[in-house]
Design a protein that fits this description.
About 2% of the residues have low confidence. This protein has 467 residues and is an alpha+beta fold. The longest helix is centred in the first third of the chain and has 33 residues. The protein starts with a strand and ends in a 19-residue tail after the last helix. A hairpin with a 5-residue loop joins β13 and β14. The strands form five sheets. A four-stranded mixed sheet has the order 8-7-6-11. Strands 1-2-3 form a three-stranded antiparallel sheet.
């Protein structure tokens, strides 16, 4: 009789999910899948709202990366207005987005993943957490708190609050930055860079301990998608979409984000609230691609800042210049991105134009569809809005970063389960490895949930007089 192993809930991730591992009659792993068990329904909730509410409303999709949604949403609204925000506004949006990348990547590395790196995947379950890290490696724990606080404080300083800031608005931002605020952020840069480099050194120096995990944690050929600048550099706020294959060959380049539907299809499986996007020309499943820090470094030709580019060259040499296929290296890529983000924040703050008080373009609805695209910490994020001539939202489609990785996460689960799980002798450390492959992707599941099955959700609001 076939058996099933269920891991519920999946621990040390953002959101709620479970994993099922199917064993055959010989107690060997036959399949493994992740099931996203929470449902949010923002695509329907947003219908009927004025476009002016969308950045603040969609930011509530997630408490971990609200800035990402506000950025993509505001860009979609810019499209509806047919305006380009002033340079100061674009710089400030970039800064707050980069600050979120720092805090989110720091959260994953220090709070969620570092217990495995410090204590090992076979450590006791009660030891695999940030509290044990505080006891045994207090400086590392303090560094994690300080680095995340660096990003969060920038968000609070610019946006007014650390979670769900309402400062990012259609056409730009709501108020400018002062010289005093700029200087206070600049003073924090050296310490943040020092901590980030220390984390990177720790990770690289300990990689030799995890050879088996590196080789089996979602290590396979796939496509990669990311935004890049017109010159092919790492880009998070703006840019053009690019798809490459596992050998680094460019499949599609310089795609305008508004044309994403020509290249990305969306499937829904019955056992999860999570969409499964795919590269249309290759079809469902064969068109599996990865997004996020690993994909961004695979697609980009360079980062564009001094310290990040030095480490970027080492990263590229992991596979002799070809795309890095080992998903374990998502952690490496995130640490490089933290360094890049801190350097880039410093550059943007030092640009004279950033202090310009002209920070918003004003207009009325000039288009009935607007697409906003940016790179969230976990990957490429799309907000696609339809609106009537009065600016009321009539349709919403969201493709969230974690959804883009759904097919790859499921394939990675099966790979690691088959590498480590012995149905005749199930060990806790091996079950932890199954969860850990999901942590490589750093999924944000509260962001990414969609409808179960093909039928969209129906929401009815009735007063007390209606039966």
């Amino acid at each position: 009789m076939n058996e099933k192993i269920v891991i519920s809930p999946v621990t040390r991730i953002e959101g709620h999910a479970k994993i099922t591992i199917d064993l055959n009659e010989k107690k060997e792993v036959e399949d493994a899948r992740i099931h996203v068990t929470q449902y949010r329904g923002f695509e329907k909730i947003c219908e009927g709202r004025p476009y002016t509410e969308m950045p603040a409303l969609t930011a509530r999709t997630c408490g971990i990366c609200p800035v990402s949604h506000a950025i993509a949403s505001s860009k979609a609204c810019d499209n509806l207005l047919a305006v380009r925000p002033p340079k100061a506004a674009r710089n400030l949006r970039r800064i707050i987005n980069l600050a979120q990348i720092v805090q989110s990547h720091a959260l994953n590395f220090y709070h969620l993943s570092s217990p495995d790196f410090v204590f090992g995947f076979d450590a006791k379950p009660e030891d695999r957490n940030i509290f044990k890290l505080m006891q045994t490696n207090p400086q590392m724990a303090k560094d994690g708190i300080a680095l995340r606080a660096f990003g969060q404080k920038i968000i609070e300083t610019l946006g007014g609050k650390r979670i769900h800031p309402t400062w990012i608005v259609p056409g730009g931002v709501s108020h400018e930055i002062t010289k005093e605020t700029r200087d206070s952020i600049l003073k924090q840069i050296p310490q943040a860079l020092e901590i980030a480099q220390s984390a990177l050194n720790f990770f690289v120096q300990n990689l030799h301990k995890f050879d088996k995990e590196i080789n089996s944690f979602a290590n396979f050929p796939s496509l990669f998608m990311a935004l890049v600048s017109k010159k092919g550099k790492l880009e998070h706020y703006d840019g053009l979409l690019s798809f490459i294959d596992s050998q680094g060959k460019i499949l599609e380049d310089k795609i305008e984000p508004k044309d994403y539907k020509k290249f990305i299809g969306e499937a829904v499986e019955e056992d999860s609230f999570l969409k499964s996007p795919y590269y249309k020309p290759f079809g469902y499943e064969e068109g599996m691609y990865r997004v996020g820090a690993l994909a961004r470094l695979n697609v980009a030709k360079k980062c564009g800042t001094a310290l990040a580019d030095k480490e970027f060259e080492r990263f590229k040499n992991l596979n002799n210049g070809k795309p890095v296929l080992h998903s374990f290296y998502y952690h490496y890529a995130r640490l490089i991105e933290i360094i890049y983000a801190i350097e880039r924040i410093e550059e943007l703050l030092n640009e004279e134009e950033t202090l310009n008080p002209q920070i918003r373009a004003h207009a009325q609805i000039n288009r009935n569809q607007g697409v906003g695209c940016s790179e969230a910490p976990r990957g490429t994020l799309f907000h696609d809005y339809q609106a009537d001539n009065n600016g009321i939202i009539t349709g919403v489609n969201l493709i969230i970063a974690t959804g883009n990785n759904n097919l790859a996460m499921n394939k990675g689960l099966k790979q690691v389960a088959q590498a480590f799980i012995d149905g005749k002798n199930i060990k806790d450390g091996d079950l932890n490895r199954v969860e850990a492959v999901i942590r490589c992707f750093d999924p944000c599941l509260s962001c990414s949930t969609h409808a179960l099955g093909i039928v969209s959700s129906i929401i009815e609001i009735r007063d007390e007089k209606k039966s």
